[in-house]
Amino acid sequence: MRKNYVKLPLLIAALYFGGDLHAQSTQDTTTKENKIEEVVVIGYGTQKKENVTGSIGIVTAKDLADKPNANPLNSVQGKLAGVNVVTSGTPGGSPRVDIRGVGSLSGNTVFIVDGMLTEDISFLNPQDIESMSVLKDPSSLAIFGAKAANGAVIIKTKSGKGKPVFNVNSYLGIKTVTNVPKMVNADQYIELYNEKLLNDNGSSAGSISRADFPADTDWFKEIFRTSIINSNDFSASGSLGKLNYYGSVGYLQDEGNLAAGQGINSGSGFNRFNTKLNLSYKITDNITIGDNFSFSKTRTDVANNPLLDARNSPPLFGPINSATGTYQFFNGYSIANPRATLDLYRSQVRQERMLNNVFVDIKFLKDFTFRSSYTTDNYTPVQYEYTPAITYIPNPTISNLITRTNRYRNYVWDNTINWKKTFGNHNLELLAGFSRIRDSRSEDVWIAKNVSYDGTNGSLNIGNGTDIFNYQDTAAAVTNGRPAATQDQQRIESFFGRINYDYAGKYLLNASVRRDASSQISTDRYKTFPAISVGWVVSKEGFMSEQNIFNLLKLRASWGELGNPRVKRDFSAIVTNIGGGAYYGNTGYAAATVDRVIDPSIGWETTTGSDFGVEMAFLNNKLKVEGTYYNKESKDIVYGVNQATISGASNPYDFITNAYSFRNKGFEVSANYNTDLSESVKLGFYGNFTSLKNEITSVYQGSFLETGASLFGNSIVRLQAGQAVGSYYGYQVDGVFQTDAEAAGSGQTGAKAGWFKFADLDGNGVIDTRDKTFLGSPIPKGTYGFGFNLTVHSIDFGIDFQGVFGNKIYNYNREQRYGNESWDLDMYNNRWRGAGTSNTNSMITSNQSIILPNSFYVEDGSYFRIRNIQVGYNLPSGIAQSLSVKKLRIYLSAQNPWTSFKYNGFSPEIMNQDRVQMGIDQNIYPISAIYTMGMNLTF
Asked: Closest Cα to residue 907, out of 59, 77, 330, 266?
């Protein structure tokens, strides 16, 4: 009894100060990785890796540890075949995860965190994660039904057992933006500006000189800074009698690379405080209860991203007008001062999020287990957006404040009964379950003018302003013609079942069925989704007993169907108000009309997939190889299409319905090798490769859609059968006209020497919209990652590489020209300035024909990157024990230190959540290199 009293204060302190189990988990996980009996987490249970018949990628705590990433998914990039992670450079930003291509144009990959389904895990501390199971094929995903159509990742957080273990993990690093595009300096800009006047007007009237513009500003240097990232985590785990516990607390600070501290701006920083407490208590041998609790508090500074302004701004001006002491106005230019863009805007998002999962496991009748799990996810992001009075421009504005409060109240209630029985060589496991999910959101928006800011958030109070308006005031919304606050509730109710069977561990069967009902669907609300997968462990056959090559040889195949009810709708805003639209006598009265054509019977999107794979292990399980062919077809995808034949409708070019079908198919190959060369020397390699072909197979009524970013009414993206999702559409450039005579005979209206030469694809001698063609796809044809790690005595070293190829980027930053925007150095060096000078870059001109969507702005998106380099030193065990610690490791790491690419921008990794515009670079926040020093301490 006395010993328990001694432990209690330690437990309380541990739960308060927190930390990580990295040292312990890494050792255990490494051991498991060399065993074929590795157990993986699947939907509503676990299974031996060798008995798994679907495609599941495994991420361990080791893969997530020691990486300076706020979001754990960033550490997965390049680690798993079939999983393309596109990271966000924005501090605290969530990456885009595409599992085996594009599954839908709506919704995202779902994450199941201790039973809770969510599409955002930015609240989660990577140090709290024990494992991640990435479900890739429909047979693995089908058990989760409607929520998993875009893929699912099961995240299991850490638990404790045994003697108390305390961990401290900390790192400090610097972040710097790399590969900054090179722009022209002041002298070069003046040269191009004057050259443009001659090209456009035939005279030098209005030319400028250096004497009139003494400044020479590098606007990227003006808005960027080197910043600090810091993380500290503490944890405790263990057991107290029948109680197992894991508790942690952590704090992350990422300052961001946009230069804060000037004007009123709050930069682009991200702070997160989080705490975790996982408890399980065994009431009897047959009854276990538990609670998995997470709480996080985040602050995100949302800067008004000035990158496009910095690229466009002429170097002739400085940020500050020396005569007035205020921001410099660019007279004669329709470009905002980048420094002012960053400074004269302040926005923050503050959020508290509490996720709590309570569960009970009851074993009865020897072979049965009942589990009930109820998870709540409550969070309230509160955002303000403040723009002060802008006085440095010719037409000054007054201050404006907007506050937004969103309330999310979500829950998941799962109930399952599991029966597991062995009959000789027959192993059978049956699962039956019921699930209910509800996601609800409400929004409250306030607007006010003439609010003064005194340097404190408290002064940004709606009540301090004038012209106050609340979007939740429905009467005011109608009276003023403004929208009411939005709210939404989605519910899914499901029944599901699964059978797992194997005979002597050789012949494997997994079959499941789930019936979902969704509140989002108005017709055919109930849908049934089946799945089946089989496997044959060939290496366990008697005829393989004499061979010495394979430790494992398994063949597997799967098929399954999924549904997605979370699709785009067009049910609202179908009535348009017409002021003075109806007249009685000479008096006009307000009226309304229905001018939109809608589809009220939008139904489920469905995804059907199959894969065929082989798994092999050699050299006493040191080398493991997997290969898979997959084919995933998505049908009835909801999005807009061109219905221009609908007369009088306001939406003829964006009629939303179940319009698209597309296919993703390809191969995955992965290999892992781990060996102990001696007692103190360990070596490991890994590598993976994925090929992908995405193709739109059909469009509603043979139509298409031109959408996405556009310039002067010219859209960049076209969705059409036979092409990949997000493909660019425009003119094919066949060089540059070298003489006026050549241009005059081309059939290209108004063309002259120095213009792009557009290809006459239909051969009719006239260049018009019929000559437009597809210019490339943003979807990579292949992704890959590889790396190795080496441990020699107390020193460890690891390096990860990652890359993509076969994709194209549309450099919309470069295309957006309205007049006198600046130029990049490539344009200066390679421009056309006379016959024979260039056949790639056009002349310097303001003519809009040059900036029509065309192949010049479509660039190679391939890249090869050193994703992470790390070297560590482990204190020898003898010295560690003398200091009463189990482990002490010091390390240095570099993340994204080097990238090889040809793209004319910050980075070819373009992070757009919108799948239709995923390859368009338009003011994207750049990826940073991060250099850190850290420590792992276990005692």
From this structure: 77
